[in-house]
Write a structure and sequence with these properties.
Keywords: Hydrolase. The chain has helices spanning 48-65, 86-94; strands spanning 3-5, 22-25, 28-34, 73-80, 103-108, 119-126. The protein has 128 residues and is α+β, with helices and mostly antiparallel strands. It has one domain (3-126): 60s Ribosomal Protein L30, Chain: A. Strands 1-2-3-6-4-5 form a six-stranded mixed beta sheet, with helices on one face. Helix 1 (48-65) packs across helix 2. The longest helix is centred in the middle third of the chain and has 18 residues, at 48-65. 30% of the residues are buried.
Length: 128
Amino acid sequence: MLKERIISPSVKEPAPGMWSNCLKVGNQVFISGMTARQPDGETVLGAEYEQSQVIFQKIKDLVEAAGGSMNNIIKMTIFVTNIANNSAVWKARQEFFEGDFPACTLVEVKSLAKPEILLEIEATAILG
């Protein structure tokens, strides 16, 4: 199995030995849970809609760096700290996808890495 780490200049890489933001294995692309953290480590402040826009842009940047597009994403898992605000996430998602949307799971969790992080999204894509 040939595993390739995909890097986008617009998405900050974690410290060595932590995790990979994006891996390409054959024609499959696996994107780790993305949050609205900026390259300086600070989280974009705002509600779920604003944070979702930042996250979907990061996912777009990574899948494009792997040679694909948002239409190649087949599965997403979205973790939110307040499921009552899920319509804001769906609104942002509609700005990045068209046609058949990916399969998706939305789960409410008690908390994420920092209190100001309201959601985290991971994605899987198949290229070609």
